[in-house]
Amino acid sequence: MLSETTYHRPNSLDQACNLLSENPDAILLSGCQSLGLLSKEGIVSLDTIIDLNRISELREISYKNGSLYIGALATHRDIETSQTVQTHLPLLSTAAKQIADVQIRNAGTIGGTCAYADPTADYPPVLMATNATVHSRSTTESFEYSTRDSFFVDYYESAIGPEEIITSITIPVSKDAGFGFEKLAYRKNDRAIVNVATILETKKGMCTRSDICVAGVWDTPLIANEAMNSLLGTQLTDDDLSRASEMSQEEILVCDDPLISVEYRSAMVGVLTKKALKTARGDLS
Amino acid sequence: MILNFKVNDTTHETNIDPSMPLADVLHDVLGYKSVKQSCSTGICGACTIRINGEARKSCLHMAGQAADSNISTVEGLSKNGSMSPLQEAFIDNFSFQCGFCTPGFLMSAAALLDENSAPSEEEIRDSLHGNICRCTGYLSIIDGVKDAAKRITEGGN
Predict the structure, then answer these.
(1) Which terminus in chain A has less CB density within 10 A, N or C?
(2) How high is the pLDDT of residue A1?
């Protein structure tokens, strides 16, 4: 028989950081919705677990000085139903609502999703489009990672170091922005075949901000830089959006998938980019 | 590790591996036989229970994670030997055939109705999205939940 797991239930972030420092191979547990699968498949070994769920300070959701603060232990359901998120960044609550099902949304957390860096997850394109920052801590240091530049490193790999615990995500919010989110999956709320987050802003009818992030198709979410730049200074006509969508389809790298051809996925990048841009344009007040 | 599980208002103290799936703890160790496992990977929802009122998939929770929380299963739905309006509505609307998935559907529906006693069909479908039934075709289940909502509202409990 395998030996029993050593299970720690710290009540504070300091305690958790100390435990992780003393047990560098320990597994951090938050919602367990992905970790549960990995342990059943034998991909992770559960010799030592640090269960973060009693650290209530990590579940806060608040809005301060133009920035949305989401504690790492906020569940998908918290984010979906939070009045604060719905008011300041409906793009994030829209993405949360499209994760799996109610039971899983009641348990899974945004911090866990970030650490896991599943390329088909629904938050990453939103976090990259909004230029969110992931904050983490070790016993002695605090760290910040730009989701746009450095956080999502590779296939299921984030930049978080072995002695760090994700504490929160902060997201700059603009009240003048319009948002779009589109997802294609085999079945409603399944893992994304393609998902796209878009943000647009205008001044006097001219586009002053455009952000497009596409996920589900490559090892990490990808920013459609050329498509974004093509929209700046335009009046966001149908033609402008069509051209940007074609550029997005052109520049976004697409992996092969055993069930779906590269051509189809790539075409869907264009289609979903266009739909998400139209939604964002319609959302501009 | 000694862990306490509070299930349907009864506290059980048990010495188990804290990484054991909660579904196994409830069914095999504590004897709550309504907690079914089919896929064991968080897809089918047969193992749905409630933790502090929320519908959760017990196959994707570790024992340690759920210890000391308020857990509820189908065994706790009936009161003083009488079935809950939700269970009666499931019987009257033929909301099950083989019955294997039914405990999970009941717990998802109970969590919905406690939060929202007059759910729309869309809200019912959303709350049952994480439960799979291979017999009924779902429509009779949705009818059962609608009927239960009506019974609860009219019955005043």
Answers:
(1) N
(2) 47
Does B18 contact A7 at a Cβ distance shorter than 8 Å?
yes
Domain total for chain B? 2
Fold of the CATH domain A178-283: Enolase-like; domain 1 (3.30.390)
Q: Where exactly are the structural domains of chain A?
A: 6-50, 59-172, 178-283
Query: Which one of B19, B45, B111 has the shortest CB-CB distance to A46?
Result: B19
CA A165 vs CA A16, A76, A100, A155, B104: distances in Å: 8, 19, 25, 20, 34
Closest Cβ opposite residue A103 in set B19, B21, B48: B48
Residue B28 pLDDT > 70: yes
Class of domain A59-172 as given by CATH = alpha beta
Average pLDDT of the residues of chain B: 97
Q: CA triplet A97, A59, A162: central angle to 5 degrees?
A: 100
User: Are B116 and B68 in a shared domain?
Assistant: no
**ipTM of the modeled complex:** 0.97
Q: b/e map of B52-73 (b: 16 or more CB within 10 Å)? A: eebbbbbbbbbbbbbbebebbb
Distance of alpha carbon B91 from alpha carbon A233, whole angstroms: 62
